[in-house]
Design goal:
Strand content: 15-25%
Distance between the termini: 58 Å
Number of helices: 13
Helix content: 40-55%
Length: 342
């Protein structure tokens, strides 16, 4: 209350019953303290943890968003980025390494990174912002979007909750498809939940899901290169880091060679050749999370900032892939798609 007081220093002096010179000193110190509550350090240090290169879109969006809000890399903010290069076992050691650097803020590029940072900061108060994660309550990352239970906030992608809708849109887009290859990682909670939701929707639509567990890129390569791969009508992916990492080098090249469309959750993957996707933009969620980061740097506790959901969802289709695979776009799908990529 005293930080916002309009009393003159003489009234302040009288209130504390001290000498004027001492009152001025106390009052000046209080002003400095109050200023520190709302003003970030001149060059804050932000530590970013990323599982692999598939996380680049949300990190690029985050850094661009920070720049739009006045924080320019190497001018008035410093970023330290640690990348496990898709080595999951390195997440915990790298999270520990980042927090030992005592940054002003830690950033998790995805859900796996958020889990690692939660363990690393359990004994200190370094705030954490999550750029992109799904099933955040079910996986035990937070207790509730409004009250996370620890020093964290961020953006919930809702990718898990949208699984059924995604499969339904795929059915509208490719109505003749019946045999659907689904790649998932059972020990990653969102992926396991998505396979359950996909099966429920598949039963309603009369689709046959060929559910295939994948734990590393080599497994995905074996699946996509197998003789059985010719029997699938479409590849449907869950939002798991292992699958995301294998998309460019393994899944898309094999699928295009086999003439099989890929329906996924990320428009970034559609830009790289997947046929279609429905979900939130990783880049846009990164930008969205930058607003939360700035609030924290200005003194707002992350636990008081509710987790947000994406500002919008994108149903994207790659027109070039459609032509290459000689697929016909029906009127129902045409009305649903809101983003065309040439």
């Amino acid at each position: 209350m005293l930080c916002n007081s309009q009393r003159g220093w003489r009234h302040f002096c009288y209130y504390l019953d001290v000498k004027p010179t001492l009152a001025i000193t106390i009052f000046s110190l209080m002003l400095v303290a109050c200023s520190n509550l709302s003003t970030p350090s001149s060059h804050p240090h932000v530590g970013i943890l990323m599982y692999g290169d598939s996380r680049h879109p949300q990190i690029e969006g985050f850094i661009q968003g920070m720049e739009n809000l006045g924080y320019v890399q190497d001018e008035n903010i410093r970023f330290t980025i640690l990348n496990t290069n898709s080595h999951r076992e390195q997440l915990d050691p790298m999270a520990e390494s980042l927090q030992l650097k005592t940054p002003d803020l830690l950033v998790a590029a995805g859900g796996l990174e958020a889990e690692a940072l939660k363990l690393a900061v359990s004994e200190n108060e370094i705030p954490v912002v999550v750029l992109y994660a799904s099933a955040i309550v079910q996986r035990g990352l937070i207790q509730h979007r409004l009250k996370p239970g620890w020093n964290v906030t961020g953006v919930d992608s809702l990718n898990t909750e949208l699984t059924g809708k995604r499969l339904s849109l795929m059915h509208d887009l490719i109505p003749d498809a019946r045999d659907v290859l689904v790649l998932y990682t059972p020990d990653i909670v969102p992926s396991a939940l998505e396979i359950k939701l996909a099966q429920e929707m598949a039963d309603k639509l009369g689709l046959k899901l060929h559910k295939t567990e994948v734990f590393k890129p080599e497994t995905i390569h074996q699946v996509m290169a197998s003789e059985q791969a010719h029997e699938f009508d479409v590849v449907f992916t869950t939002s798991t880091a292992v699958v995301n990492h294998a998309m460019l080098d393994i899944i898309l090249p094999h699928a295009l060679q086999l003439g099989i469309p890929v329906f996924t959750h990320s428009s970034t993957m559609v830009e790289s050749g997947a046929y279609a996707s429905y979900g939130s933009s990783a880049y846009e969620m990164g930008k969205q999370a930058s607003r939360l980061a700035v609030k924290i740097l200005h003194g707002t506790p992350p636990s008081s900032i509710p987790f947000e959901t994406p500002d919008r969802f994108v149903y994207a289709l790659n027109e070039g892939t459609r032509i290459k695979l000689q697929l016909t776009l029906n009127d129902v799908a045409r009305a649903q798609i809101n983003t065309r990529i040439d």
